[in-house]
Amino acid sequence: MKNKKQSRVKIVLPVLFTFGASLLFFQADAQADSSQSADANVQVVATTDANTQNNNSQSLNVSTSQGQNLGTNQTAAYTQSAVAANSSTNNDGAVSLNAGAVQAAANKPVVETNPGYTTGQYNVTATPVNAANGGNGTASLNTAGLTAAQKAFLDSIHDGAISTWKQYGVLPSLTAAQAIIESGWGQSSLASQYHNLFGIKGFYNGHSVTLPTREVYGGRSVIINDAFRAYDNNSQSVQDHGYFLVANSRYHNLLWKTNYRDVTYLIRADGYATDPSYTTTLNSVIERYGLTAWDQEAFDTNTGYIDDLSVRDGKLHIAGWHATNSYDNKMHHFIILLDGNTKQELYRTEVAGNYRQDVQNAYPNATISGWGGFDFSIPYTSAFAGKNIQVVSRYTYNTNGEINGGKDLYYNAVSLNANTGNLENMSLDAKTGNINIAGWHAADASLNKKYHYIIIYDGSKQTELGRYLVNTTTRNDVVNVYPGIYNAANSGFSLKLKFNQALAGDQIQVISRYSDNQNGEGNYVDYWFAPQTFTANQAYLENYQIQGNQLHVSGWHAADQSVGKKYHYVIVYDATTKREIARRLVTSTNRSDVTRVYPNVYGAGDSGFSVDIPLTAAMTNGDQIQIISRYSDSLNDNGSYVDYWFAPQTFNVNAANLENFQIDGDQLHIAGWHAADQSVGKPYHYIILFDTTTGNEVKRQLIPATVRPDVAKARAGIYNAGQSGFSTILTVDPALNGHNLQVISRYSDAKSGEGNYIDYWFKPVNVTIK
């Protein structure tokens, strides 16, 4: 009776196969240069989103292992640290890096490569692959004498030819014969490079290739360049060929015809080819290779779908359907589970029909369709964990599920190696000096792996820095999104890690590992999160000015790479001549305001500095003077360090005011003030009277500096503002009557008033001398 089956269920116990795959840490010998310099006033902060993926990642998705190769010397050290993973903790619960691993990393160079990370994999949908008893495209054909390449070509067009019949009514044997003839078994240049098997011109999904082709115009044969459709694969070309025949109404008379001789006659008669022997050639190819077997396969209904294959509540749930014409009610329906990679059988069971009205409606003429549904669960064991599972639905007369009549349907494999995670936090807490790490990791292969480790890995040095056994936490949010992954409900983790100089500057990765061994080795599954770099370098120069005879410098500087660098220097640098002028070791001061703004930068809370440096002539000679804040691990500054270069400034202010210029008889009274940064190191102050009419100096007089607190208040940032006053009386020759006289205030390093000096030229005055 059609679409009826007996409700019999038999479980056949399978032979279970297990396997392990090896994953090696990528390692190399090395050492990092922890010093850093930045361009002036430019901070280089390299950060990476912990969940960002890129195309340069190494493939780390095959994640089960039977032991990790860390090198002979390192394995013992890491195993020891793993057993006592949480023994090195601070009062706040933060753990420290493994000291031996840190030292090993310090002696390694940076490896110029992009650290790999895991791409989350999760899939619970399997689409069907139609197959007769599991055969491929050439299984039912006469392939005697064919080369391996010709067999592969037939395999490449098989699915498309079957699908084209179901979709457009184009007989598969016709499609295959035309593809063989017109593409030369896929070896023509158009076919081999662009998968165009039928020479169809135009565009396919916007893709084409322009090639020379011979055409006849007005009885003349000419070569022109024309666009031919370009495809991604042969199956696309076959599908498009079927659409081409449907879209052109002259070929409608051959659609849905089941006799190949009818359609080979019609396609030539409809004008597809002008060769009078085209029909004969097609028939010869169809008969030579038995291509009508594909016609029969297309006529037969044998299809299905996997609606769900996932882990739920510790059970493997499988649901779907299988409709076929190759069935009678004496047959048994078996579901067989294979390892999708090795094709080893993992499990088989006879299933009862789970009626599907939707399938019955779609395939009303199939011998079994509605009652071909199945929905069942089996215990989720290590036989399935971490594998690609391929479902096979089989109708057979045999009670043990072996092939005997009926049909098999092989579905695409579904990964039960689901392995996904999210690093929700990997940030530095400036107040505590800890890195707070939190996230989740759900993996099917975590079954029977009860030890959950968080491993800190230096991707730049390709070295493990420490591993820590953590307690998994409940994550209802994760299981709501990923209900099919084994441990999703208990996938959370968190860790506090004491910040260490080994973590600063390099690409640091968090690896979440589930292991069946207490030391984190043995069999395990890893998730490598994308690397993050701790290179924040923030600073601000709040005060940078001359105060009396001192250069006053104050501000703050916080840098991740200052960890382990306890010596804080302020350096005065001549950016013009590119040489250091002075440096001072400073005591860092508390800056809670900086911590509030930059809570994730190391040392923010103690980032302040303030220092007075004796002013020298080298600082005020007109060059660009730059302040550098430096954290160093060496008192003599020969170690490693991190700098912040502030914007340069030029100290060349030269200001003055002539407050009195009065002639009384032959006496000239002069008074005012002159403050100049470049007067540093120039103790001789001269007042010079210059005749601009004749271009000659009249006289000069060395004068003592006088106190000018008013100038010091108004021009506080100029070197000698407080001692800038002058007042003197000069005797002038009456012969200068009517001349333009100019006062020059000069600071010189020579007693004569020459040598190195800085002048201020006041505006000339026309004088009357009585």
Automatic annotation (TrEMBL):
<comment type="similarity">
    <text>Belongs to the glycosyl hydrolase 73 family.</text>
</comment>
<dbReference type="InterPro" id="IPR051056">
    <property type="entry name" value="Glycosyl_Hydrolase_73"/>
</dbReference>
<dbReference type="Pfam" id="PF01832">
    <property type="entry name" value="Glucosaminidase"/>
</dbReference>
<feature type="signal peptide">
    <location>
        <begin position="1"/>
        <end position="30"/>
    </location>
</feature>
<keyword id="KW-0732">Signal</keyword>
<dbReference type="GO" id="GO:0004040">
    <property type="term" value="F:amidase activity"/>
</dbReference>
<protein>
    <submittedName>
        <fullName>Mannosyl-glycoprotein endo-beta-N-acetylglucosaminidase</fullName>
    </submittedName>
</protein>
<dbReference type="InterPro" id="IPR002901">
    <property type="entry name" value="MGlyc_endo_b_GlcNAc-like_dom"/>
</dbReference>
<keyword id="KW-0378">Hydrolase</keyword>
<feature type="domain" description="Mannosyl-glycoprotein endo-beta-N-acetylglucosamidase-like">
    <location>
        <begin position="143"/>
        <end position="295"/>
    </location>
</feature>
